[in-house]
Design brief:
Blueprint: H1 6-31, H2 38-60, H3 69-97, H4 99-106, H5 109-120, H6 127-148, H7 162-185, H8 191-215, H9 223-260, H10 263-274, H11 281-299
Helix pairs in contact: 1-9, 1-10, 2-8, 2-9, 3-4, 3-7, 3-8, 4-6, 4-7, 5-6, 5-7, 5-9, 6-11, 7-9, 8-9
Length: 301
């Protein structure tokens, strides 16, 4: 039976918007990857989000009491494990074993999240939803494989390494942990105020990262590259993170993690149009399987 409550619909649509904005941003990051370090991208997108969230809270924040200490800890850990540690270790894994191997491993995190949500968060098990989770993850993996099956200009081939596989598995656990922490932490909190806390913590953690990177000789990106990354960060992190946390508040960890992981579904057509990339039949099949899987997750009976 379709769970068509207004809150569920709001959460589902917010999750899809978050995935879409993230897909836009990662295509911009990819187009500029030769001109800026990953750590610089992380720092820029986090710091550009802070003033935006402050203004948003002043305009739309509730008059509720301060965020409880336990929720504050969980939300703080969620941004560290997901947007900082998780994203960084994924890039490290991708550099060692390539997208075609790193993404399928890390992209399976909704399965772990669903298991945790059912056994530890008390979310009800539903056979159709569980099947949808598996199909969505399979579809996302096929999309990734479909993009990597066709060599792109300048693309390197990577072999497997124990370290790279280990980093990808660690990324999987971090993304799953971030989803669970976000879902539990935001359950009794205004999502906009909760996201401001997350961005404050993430921005603070980026300070030592910036100092360390500059001391190790990280080059300063050009003004043009910086402007593009700022724009992408504003879309993917500033606005996207708001939709992300709203989604988890209203649909929970199990559904939220699946919907949030559908960014490749949007990234493929964007890259086809703007980056002139190609996708194989495997990728097309993956798109269809992902759509079916997400539909089953949202139906969830």
């Amino acid at each position: 039976m379709l769970q068509a409550t207004p809150e569920f619909i709001l959460g589902a649509v917010s999750g899809l918007l978050s995935a879409f904005l993230y897909a836009v941003s990662i295509n911009v990051y990819k187009s500029q990857s030769a001109n800026i370090r990953p750590v610089a991208v992380t720092i820029i997108k986090m710091w550009i989000s802070l003033p935006f969230m402050i203004v948003l809270v002043l305009l739309l924040g509730s008059a509720s009491a301060a965020i409880p200490a336990d929720a504050a800890v969980l939300l703080s850990l969620s941004i560290i494990t997901g947007a900082l540690v998780g994203d960084t270790t994924y890039l490290m894994a991708q550099n060692r074993i390539g997208v075609s191997h790193a993404f399928p491993i890390a992209g399976a995190h909704p399965i772990m999240t669903y298991v945790v949500a059912v056994f530890f968060l008390g979310e009800q098990f539903a056979l159709v939803r569980a099947s949808g989770v598996l199909l969505a993850v399979l579809g996302i993996i096929l999309i990734s494989r479909g993009r990597s099956d066709i060599p792109q200009e300048g693309q390197e081939r990577h072999g497997l390494s124990v370290v790279g596989i280990g980093l990808a598995i660690f990324t999987l656990t971090q993304y799953s942990l971030a989803a669970v922490l976000t879902s539990v932490g935001v359950s009794g909190v205004d999502p906009i105020e909760g996201n401001l806390l997350r961005i404050i913590v993430g921005s603070a953690v980026c300070i030592p990262a910036f100092i360390g990177a500059t001391q190790r000789g990280m080059p300063i990106p050009s003004r043009r590259v910086t402007k593009l990354v700022v724009l992408a960060g504003f879309l993917g992190m500033s606005i996207g993170s708001v939709f992300y946390i709203v989604s988890f508040k209203y649909v929970g960890a199990a559904v939220g993690s699946v919907v949030a992981s559908t960014s490749p579904l949007f990234a493929v057509p964007i890259s086809l149009v703007f980056l002139k990339e190609r996708v194989s039949r495997t990728g097309v099949v993956g798109i269809a399987v992902t759509i079916i899987g997400v539909f089953l997750v949202l139906v969830g009976f």
